[in-house]
Structure formats: C-alpha cells, structure tokens
Amino acid sequence: MNIKTALVSAMLAAVAIADGNSTSSVPSSCSIKAKSTATQQSDLDKYSGCETLVGNLTISGDQLNQGALNGVQNLEGSLTIFNATTLTQFNADQLQNISHSLNLQQATQLQTASFNALQQVDTIEMIALPNLNNFVTNLKNASVIYISDTSLQTVHAFEELQQVKSFNLNNNKLLGSLESALKSVEDSLEFSANGNNSNVTFDHLQWANNITLRDVHRASFVSLEKVNASLGFINNSIDALNLSNLTSVGGSFSVVSNNQLTGVNASELKSVGGGFIIANNTRFKKIEGFHKLATVGGAITVVGNFTDLDLASLKSVKGGGQFETNSGNFSCSSLKKLQSQGGIQGDSFVCKNGATSTSIKLSSKSSSKKSSSGDNSKSSSSSGNGSSKSSSFTRSSDAVKTASADASKSSGSSSKTASNDDNSKSKGMAAAQFAPVGSLIGALGAVAAALL
C-alpha cells in the first residue's frame, strides 16, 4: 500500500513539474493576446524572435501592403488573414506547423501567399481571394482543404499531401491543372465550377468515401480501387474515363451529361451498392466498359444515344430498370430476359430503342414473379413517336435530376465540413502535433488516477 501511495505521489509531482515546464517554455512575448489583431508589419515583427508562437494570429485592416511573419516555425493556434484590403503579398516561409487552421478570406488584393516550409496544418480555408494567383506550401499532413473563388491557374501546393478528410476546389475560374499525390480521402473529394479546360490528376488515389467531379476537361484516376459511398462525373467535357482498377462503389455511380464522353473503362467494377446511372452523354455510343458488373443495389438507368450496352455479367438489380436509347439498332432482348428471370427486382422495367419499347409496371415484388413469366402487367408498343416516347423523355429527365441531386447532397455536406467544423476537427491534430509535454502530463495523470 505504501509503495502504491508513493508511486501516485511521484506521478502527481511529475505532472506538476511538467505542467510548470510547459507553461514556462514559451515566453510571454510569444503568446498572442486574445482578440488581438495585427494591422501593420511592426505588429508581426515583434514575434520574429519566437520559434514557437502560441495563440490565434489575425491579420486585417488597410495599413499593410506586404506582410511577413519571420522567424516563427510553429504556431500553436490559427493564422487568419481576413479583410486585409490592401495586402498584396504575404509570406511565412519559415513556418512549418500550424496546429489549427490557415484561413485566408476576403483579401481582395492578395496576389501571393507563400508558406514554403509549411508541412502540417489541420484546415486550409481560402475564400474570396479574386487576385490570388500564387499559393505555395510543402504540405504533407492536413485534414480539410477548401479553396473557392481565387485566380489560381495551377496548384502545386498539395503535391506531397497523401491523405485528407475532405478536399474541395470550386469556382476558381482560371484553374487549369491540379496534380495531387493523395492516396485516400476519408470524406469527400469535390471539384466543380473551375476553369473550362481544367485537368485534374489523382493517379495515386486508391480509395475515397465520395468523389464528385463537375466542369472538368480531363481527369485521371488510374489507381482508384474503391469508393465507399458515391462516385459522380457530371457535366464535364471529358472525352474518356479510365477507371480500370475500380472494383466497387458502395453508393451511387453516376455518369451524367458529359457531352464529349466517348468511353468509360471500368473493366474491374463488380458491384455498385446504390443506383447506377449513365444518362445524357451525347457521344457515348458504345457502353462496353462494365462487362464485369454483377450487382446493383439500387435502380439502374441508362439513357442516351447508345448502340451497344455490355452488361454481360449483370445478375442482380435490387431496384427497377430503365434503358432508353434513340438508336433503332439496340436490342432489348438480353435485358428483358434478365428481368423475366428475376434479375431486375424493382417495381418497374422499361427498355426502349428508337423503334420499340417494353414497359412493365408492378404493384409489388410478389407480382414481379408473375409478370416476369408473362402477362398480367406487361404492355408492349412498337411506335417510334407515340405516347410511350413522350413518357420516356420525362423519365430521362428524372434520371438526370436524381444524379444531380445525389451529387449536390455530397457537395453540400463537404462545404459544411469545411466552413463549420474547423474547431472540432483541429483539436485532434493539434494535440498530436504540438503537445508532447501535454501528452506526458495526460498519460501520467491518467495512470495516477487509475491507481487512486
């Protein structure tokens, strides 16, 4: 018992000593006062002797044209440049770590933001920087990246970054290229409304939870193997998609309104957990890159001008089936056979080419088995321009709306993640990166408490 008491006392003493050391390790001159704002270079120069700076540094106002944070290597807090209306250049080229966030917002004259040594930060949020054309980091670790409304033409700041929670670039109208070494995305990867000829390269990416690409000219995902939730390519000018290593999509798979698209290679894709939608891709005539697809957990929709559709391995579709093409050369026979054998299990089935259509509407799954063998609720018409064609256009529009809605949900959730959750996300990474003494304190305190 005496040994136990002595051990507890020793540990508590060590905690007190470590706590005292951690407090005294940073001079008071290197601690930023709460709610203080730097408005001129002299406000920043007073930290030049601080290797570690503690607190949240905010830069704002109209008195600073070119700003620099010199000497500081570690910032235990956040760095914010907000509404600095005359600032054109800012550099913190010795800064290696930011425990919380780097926020650059509404600095309308800012052209260059240089963080040459920056390797670790929890969140980067850059919004409303209409003149920013140069952003430099050496980033290796980050959780959230959100960049919107800048004049960036190329992005090299993330070429060493291998893992993030979310990565969102949108409304950067001059952005032409992005190359990334990302291997995994825990939440969402989104790229939309950037330059008309933007090229994105994610050749090291192996898995992600959600991926949504809009308004992209070229995209490369040659190593992508798995998407846990949704994967969508919507309203792009891509002419081909190489997804040759993709084996599964846990949610919906959507390829919608890509007017230049002529081919998709998803030759290893075997399962889609949600809906499978290929719709309104004007030049996509031969849909042959899905020959190993065996199961679809939702409905399947293929609408367009296709002449060939290779779904030779398809065995099970939990939802309905909609197959509509303007081509008169497409045959519905194999799809009708699959439906009649119970492979398409939903309450509706439509297969239509430019000359004929077959529609089946079922009231329940139990009636599905009856109708698949023949007569009760099957209607067939051989008309190129009749009422069945009119209804097919309505259904086609619904398919596109469904795909767009799915992608919008994904986009909305990511934006909220970037803008609303900065504090909660940053705490974990901050503790891991900048609290070796604090970690010792916590560990010793926990052991002492357990012994008591």
Q: What does the model show?
A:
With about 450 residues, this protein is α/β, with parallel strands linked by helices. It has a domain at about 210-420. The strands form 5 sheets. The protein has a 24-stranded mixed β-sheet that branches. It has a 4-stranded parallel β-sheet with strand order 4-7-9-11. Strand 34 (about 350) and strand 35 (about 355-360) form a beta hairpin. It comes from Zygosaccharomyces bailii (strain CLIB 213 / ATCC 58445 / CBS 680 / BCRC 21525 / NBRC 1098 / NCYC 1416 / NRRL Y-2227).
Name some characteristics of this structure:
single chain, 452 residues, alpha/beta, 24-stranded mixed sheet, four-stranded parallel sheet, 7 helices, 36 strands
Task: Chart the SSEs and their pairings.
Layout: H1 2-24, E1 37-38, H2 41-45, E2 52-54, E3 57-61, E4 66-68, E5 74-76, E6 79-84, E7 89-91, E8 97-105, E9 112-115, E10 120-129, E11 134-137, E12 144-150, E13 154-155, E14 163-170, E15 177-179, E16 184-192, E17 199-201, E18 207-214, E19 218-220, E20 226-227, E21 231-234, E22 240-242, E23 248-249, E24 253-256, E25 263-265, E26 271-272, E27 276-279, E28 286-287, E29 295-296, E30 300-304, E31 308-309, E32 316-317, E33 321-325, H3 333-340, E34 348-352, E35 357-361, H4 365-372, E36 378-381, H5 387-420, H6 422-434, H7 436-451
Parallel strand pairs: 1-3, 2-5, 3-6, 4-7, 5-8, 6-8, 7-9, 8-10, 9-11, 10-12, 12-14, 13-15, 14-16, 15-17, 16-18, 17-19, 18-20, 18-21, 20-23, 21-24, 22-25, 23-26, 24-27, 26-29, 27-30, 28-31, 29-32, 30-33, 33-34
Antiparallel strand pairs: 34-35, 35-36
Helix pairs in contact: 1-7
Signal peptide: 1-18
Region (Disordered): 362-428
Protein name: ZYBA0S12-02102g1_1
